[in-house]
User: Fold these one by one.
Assistant:
Number 1:
Amino acid sequence: MALTNDHTVKAFDEDLNRLRGLISEMGGRAEQALLQAMTALKQGDLDLAAQVVRDDKKIDALEAEVEQLTVQTIALRAPMADDLREMIAALKIVSVVERIGDYAKNIAKRVALMDQTRSIEAIPVLMSMSNIVVELVHDALDSFAARDAELAVRVTVRDKNVDDFYNSIFRTLVTFMMENPKYISESAHLLFVAKNLERMGDHATNIAEMVYYVVTGERMEERERGETPEESAAAEKEQG
Amino acid sequence: MTQEDLTITDPKMKAHGVNVFYGEKQAIKDVSIDVGTDLVTAFIGPSGCGKSTFLRSLNRMNDTVASARVTGQIELDGEDIYAPSMDVVQLRARVGMVFQKPNPFPKSIYDNVGYGPRIHGLAPSKADLDVIVERALVRAGLWDEVKDRLGESGTALSGGQQQRLCIARAIAVDPEVILMDEPCSALDPIATAKIEELIHELRGKYAIVIVTHNMQQAARVSQRTAFFHLGTLVEYGKTTDIFTNPKQERTKDYITGRYG
């Protein structure tokens, strides 16, 4: 038997390549949306923030296109084994990437609500946190493109750093609010930004888990979560 | 070969180290497989992989090919079917067969079904035979379509009906195993769906082994799938596993259409 990665039906490979291309483009746009949203937040750039909100429509459109192509491919090609797993993963991944885009849009919308004359010390920490999230999203999508299960596992492990950042920023902002009651509104917005970033990190691990499933056919072992149940409960309590 | 997750606790047939030769050429190489009593087992693989040859060794159909030679062990309920004491006619009644092309006898519908029970002495009286014929046609899902014209020739039926008639004929002698060699390849999609529904209905009453070129069909009708390639059994497992997460590269390449 000639072992090859190509399908006997070449049109099937063309569909798969198009699907991968669309997901890659969508991921790139989501990454960019996050970078621009954070830049807009740091610099108080309302135009850039507005652009992030506008561009989110393109991400939504790409999601719809991937969904359509996936359903079509399942119907027409009856994919099996790793091809089938890829179809299912594609559907799930694009819905996650769409959520990442929404969080970026949500951050961008807060830029106009911030009073830029006030500087808050948490912002530089948020920038560091968002850099890690961008890397995670980037690596998660790279692991999908490269069929790299090991990279996918590393993404889930690194998500712990994002969770640590979140807990740290939470405490910083709460302290800041107690000391500066006039800044409570801004601080609350920044808390939401931190929460959004934390959720994006979780979504990157969701992508990584799907990639692991595509490549190996198995579910990823219960991942090294960023927090123990006790810490998680404590964090919930703090926020509650 | 992967044997994990194969929970066949009560095998109807057991094959161990089976080789089949046509003259000098070896068509089947050291195949071992258990066929579950309450399961539909599908054999898939590219043309010439040996799946039909192996199927035919399960009821000694290869005996009819002069150059064919079978070695190894095949058991039906623990009984060696290649033992000298085995009555081959009796064996083929216990392990019935349905072929690719429907092949009804050029006789009435009634006689097509009644012939086997009559020569095997299963029907002492005409009334007994009537009951057997009706029951077989009901089980084959054909009764309602032919009950008013049992005297008509079997060959006058449509292709799909003829195939169900052949299944009724196999059922009539009360077999334990039914072997099907590409039973739908000559049928249209509607007739194919009826045969597949019938296979579903018959599961549990008979152990069923089906050879098919249509992988979707194997996925639809079977609980166990065996993939053959170049005379060897490459992988045997739960159908759901084979089609979502095959363990062997060759299986994956075949079922995803990368073969060739």
Note: Chain A touches chain B at residues 1-9, 12, 78-85, 217-218 (CB under 8 Å).
Number 2:
Amino acid sequence: MTGKRVTFSNTWLAGLLIAPQLILVFTFFYWPAGEALYWSFTLEPPFGGENQWVGWQNFKTVFEDPLYWNSVRISVIFALSSTVLAMGIALVLAVFVDRRLPGYQAYRFMYFWPYAVAAPAVGLAFRFIFAPDAGFVSALNQWYPGIWNPARNGVDAVILITLANAWSMVAYNFIFFLAGLQSIPRTLTEAAAMDGSGVLRRIADIQFPLLAPTFFFLVVINLTDSFVNSFGIVDITTAGGPARATDLMVYKIYSDGFKGKDYSLAAAQSLVLMLLVISLTFIQFRFVERRVHYS
Amino acid sequence: MVERTPILNILTHLILLTGLIMLLVPLWIVFVASTHDFRTVNTVPMTLWPGNQMIENYTLAWNQSGFGPKMLNSFIVAIGVTAGKIAIAAISAYSIVYFNYRFRSLFFWMIFVTLMLPLEVRIVPTYAVAANVLRPYQELLDLVGLTSLVNTVAGIRLALPEWSMLNSYTGLILPLIATATGTFLYRQFYLTVPDELAEAAKMDGAGPLRFFWDVLLPLSKTNMAALGTIMFVYAWNQYLWPLLIVTDIANYGTAVMQLQRIVPGPLFGEPPRWHIAMAGTLMVMTPPLLVVIFMQRWFVRGLVSTDK
Amino acid sequence: MARIDIRNVTKFYGKTQVVHGVDFTINDGEFVVILGPSGCGKSTLLRMIAGLEEISGGTICIAGDVVNDKEPRERGCAMVFQNYALYPHMSVAENIGYGLKVAGVPKAERLVRVQTVARTVGLDAFLDRKPGQLSGGQRQRVAMARAMIKEPKVFLFDEPLSNLDAKLRVQMRIEIRKLHQRLKATSVFVTHDQVEAMTLADRLVVMNKGVIEQIGAPKDVYDRPASVFVAAFIGAPGLNLLPATISSDGHSLTLADGQRLGVETARYPALKPGPVTLGLRAEALNIRPQGHVTGQGTLKATFDFAEELGVGQHIHAEVAGSPIVIHVDGRHPYTYNDVLSIEVSPRDLQLFETKTGLRIAEVNAPVPATSRDQPFVLDALA
């Protein structure tokens, strides 16, 4: 499964070679993950000393907190809508770039650029572009005063971070969709053309079905990414506001843990988020298996 | 293929052009805003044509935030992560693929699992570890009972020194290396290397290290370039992690972190100096953008092969 | 009537020209095989007929209509691809019926037609399977069925048998030939396998470097190759080729080591003194006991080794510094470096211009002997 037919038998050398990776993984992955688990079931006494075992109490606190459910609700809305947006746009662009009309290389080349931009930079750029009193979108307000203000209006704020997030993810999806399309043998499209199928019909009958594995893979990646990597955008653009309208799960963990210094509560929330991400990943593995079975 | 679809072709170009505008207009606006003065940048509706304040704005943004040392820090971190990642990925995958020992499957899975949980999700405890890196080992020693054993036998309190990675390059770099990304890329690569090569090396009398150094590493150059580009961009663009572990911003702050400090707005009690903010944003995004533009081939390759 | 007229067709990829002014006609109901080494432009030509490649210059007519600007679906062709190009996500029935579905044929009719076609290729038991669950031969049949169901004017085959193992390839070859006999549809078949080409073709088109080298019935191409390229490419082994010089009176030719053969000068009106390439079929050569004198010319050769064929042997020898292969029916008694006497009938000489590689024309050319007229006499020489 993992190895070669021809191997070396120098065991201590093998151990030495893998040791750095294992030490890093243990120190910065397994220990913290385990500690999160421990913390989420314990409470730090106010006057110091060993943590007290409190069972499910942290989780109870978390789940009974309406602010937490607010955060979950917003995270789900945010993740779903930016996934739909980013994937939809990327799919359309990839399918049409794959037609390889003259000049398609230029599009392919430039569609890719937003991927390089760091999330907080995206956030800052979008904060300016969508600012109510300066920038690009502010023209709307001049036209119809007060219609757009992400600093005041929660819905506007969610729209803003969703757009910013979707924008920064289109490039990634585009690359994968295009790679998926290019892995479909050219002769299949040609066979369909010989069968009398036109461009759009071929997209629907041949390319879309064969892109299904890529599609499911990207759904999971996009959702995970929206749950996890949205910190940079939110922190710069809205800082969770206004009135917690953009208080995404990752952001709440950060503010509870580092601003509120409540590690136990943050750990319990982290654990919930971990479970969410892990279950998404499991779904992905199932589809990865299907992909293998597919070809 | 012979196809007469003039209307669809026009439509195709229109769609592609719309996509291009959607994706590049934000970058253009950032650029345009960074070239105007305070008054113009706050004019509604904003102009979409560059102004003449570019040099002034960039100089100001650069000096005011001390972007020089911050960019340098970002480069150190990005290059450290890239080099460290490639080195560690190459050797650990080599161990897993080319050596046959009892735990290799276990190790493989242990590394594999780390793909599931990104740093952001386990940020709180990871921070706690970084504050005292040897604590896990101390607690491990205590847990196994080694500490008390030594204490009773030798009368010495076995205590590992405290080692904080806060405000250090190691703290910025190491946790970012502790993932499986590159290991898998390398593993895939090794598995495509024909077995005959190792056999031939054995016949020529080369040992495992020699084979690794003389044969595998040179062969993996493309792999290295692909992994290197994605790791550079990934590391450069890190935000939350540096934000947490760096409090000594003057010495260890990175360029991306600095973005938080140039957000204009009434929140910070200052006038909205968007032109300076946008100049800073553009400076921060330029290095990874250049990597992506000039190393696109490697980048796409790295991306598609690490995540699939 | 689905005649295909190919008129001065060229193909450029950017600045590289891969097809140079190809010109020929495929008659209605004819089975034409385009044969050539890889990269000779044969597949490109086929794909231009199909409409999968743009035609850079010249015209292609199918059934009298210029199809240059027609889309594949408007040309009435069906194609069998080299890797079959079956839709992996559709069942066998859906694969076969996809063309009808696109054409808007109602489901009930589609089903009947799919079943009929599937029966003729022996696939009726597999209609619900996905291509991934089929063997190579079965996939090949699906590809055939998918082409047949459209009842096309023209069948195009792009090396459809090259992915099959040797035994299956022979079997499918026979089936394709039978199918053609029944349907009588115009067929163009591209291959690099000369045995496949010889056995299937009504007419053979031999291509090299984007140019047609020769067009003709397989037997004619074999017996009278139009150029050195065709001579070497067709037949196993290809024609033996030896550099020679025609004497000034034109009555004889001299090999590199001075050996001479008589030439029936009257047969080659265009023959000029000077260098030529001499071609000799392995089957047209006879090994004679030394000193055996007939009216034929004789060449001295040194024996190298023999290849066993089962039905006989290929004797590899050297004549005037060039390798030569002689087909014998029996078994040989020679050892390395034995001197052989090879009998060459003057009417079996095939002459090619050295410079152009083209055949030197013959008048009232007799059919060269492809089989021996005398039984082989086994003689110990050494």
Note: The first helix of chain C runs from residue 42 to 50.
